[in-house]
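Lab notebook, bench 4. We co-purified these components, and the gel suggests they stay together. Before we commit to crystallization screens, I want a quick structural picture of the whole thing.
Request: model the full complex, all chains together.
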Amino acid sequence: MAVTEQVHPEILRSRIRTATASRSLQRARERVIEILLLLAALSSVAITVGIVGVLVFESLQFFKHVSIVEFLTDTQWTVLFADPHYGIMPLVSGTLVTSVVALLVSLPLGTVIAIYLSEYANTRTREILKPILELLSAVPTVVFGYFALLFLTPLLQRFLPSLPGFNMLSAGIVIGIMIIPYVSSLSEDAIRAVPIHIREGSYAMGATRLQTALRVLFPAAFSGIASAYVLGFSRAVGETMIVAVAAGTQPNLTLNPMEGAATITAYIVQVSLGDLPHGSIAYQSIFAAGLTLMLMTLIFNIGGYLLRKRFREIY
Amino acid sequence: MKKTIDLGARITRNKTVDRLFVVFGLLATFVGLLTLAALMIDLAIDGAGRLDWQFFTSFPSRFASRAGILSAWVGTILVMIVTAFTAVPLGVAAGIYLEEYASKNWITAIIEVNIANLAGVPSIVYGLMALGLFVYQLGLGQSILTAGLTLALLILPIVIVATREAIRAVPGSMREAALALGATKWQTVKDHVVPYSTGGILTGVIIALSRAIGETAPLITIGALTFIAFLPGAPIQAEFPFISFEWLMSPFTVMPIQMFNWVSRPQEEFHLNAAATGLVLIFMTLAMNAIAIYLRYRFRKRIKW
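Here is the predicted assembly.
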């Protein structure tokens, strides 16, 4: 026999009130949580604002003392000397030379690896080789610096006896090997994303795998491959420890990779290692150098974006 | 005159070239793998002899043979604790917001573009930002706290992207089932979506931390010292209130900086110390990556929707 509960109307009313109250409380809680999550997401924007803000603010202080014309045209960077010169060109040339050497290593190797892994290797080989290759970008860069200075440079000196102990060649090669996984993984993704019927069309015309890869897939995937190249370049330009250890800290306006030269990043490290007073012009100069570095990567990213837009293929 | 083409010869040639490319591809891959092997063997030959108990329990010293990495590994662990406690909650929350809550509007678009761009910002630039903002504007000094926060910001994009990927892999039917039973959005997220994606998130967090452990440049920029002959205050005290946060404001050094310091000295004996430190570092990062790969494999195998 069912027992029906007799509820006093007053109690029922209060229960409904409680339920409504807790419902609206819950709704408020949901709202608060959503706002907190949004704030967390916005924190990433705050990082960018912080970066740009600090770089621009401190650089403005720097450019109160140094004219932009001198900064861009002087061929010497001797901030820490008694007779200071503030020409960024030697640091830019060092950065560009190491990056170009790095790209000469990583772009061909990375692209060949990408084609090999996506078009030739079977699934098993790929599943084994890819994670091992990606370990290359997991090795701490200071360890790569050690390798460049104390393994690769002595090795290169056997073939190039005139190579100095600190040189951009060795640093650039090691940076290039380090960024191979960035180039190869992203390029491989791009090549694999090309629809299968395009491959089949090429095979049906009697093309070999290599012909298909080079003449059909590479152009079709070029917008993605270009992003991989641009990311590789950003990595090479921003790489710090390898060049700080192996390329030397002497600003040197040269395009010869067989010489040693400081990069923008190596200069920042060198200054930071000393104990510079906050607000001094040498302190501000590392922010101006950092801003230059950011602008360089920005220019190449915009270039990459335009390249992607120009070559984008839509299926 | 009609030019004749020897089709057979051409086909044979194309096929040979095609087959040769396999060799070429393998060679290119092996350049990478060989470098990795050479790197480790080189470090092991130079540094393995220095790896003993004394090396882990000694402070740096003017004498290479007496120097050790005690302050460096303690510093690394403390900085990593701050980094993990900052980057994980922030990154996971941001990932949840972008996958589960964000509507398609300009704020979301800005956040997405911004995260993609942050991945390309050189790490040393984070150091400059931290130097201007944390060290001087906020007055946190050249401390473990500053270092941990700097690295947390550096790896935040990695954590966010990993969280989003893990959450995206949870099928919509799971969410619909929870919502149909009257769960609120947050209940659905906290009791279903996040637990199911823990494996993916954890993998991403470990990879991000393994990146942070090897970072040197941003910490040098904020002014980490290279010669630390003391340990930060212990976090657990014998007296009330038992927990102390003094260590957060302590000066510090970390393993990559100690290694950099030793490798930039001219004396060969210090290079051996650098190699030994590098060996420890590389073992730690590779172990973390191996754990991440294993976890990814485990969770992929276990979960069948």
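The mean pLDDT of chain B is 86. Worth comparing against the SEC data before the next meeting. Chain B touches chain A through 88 residues (CB under 8 Å).
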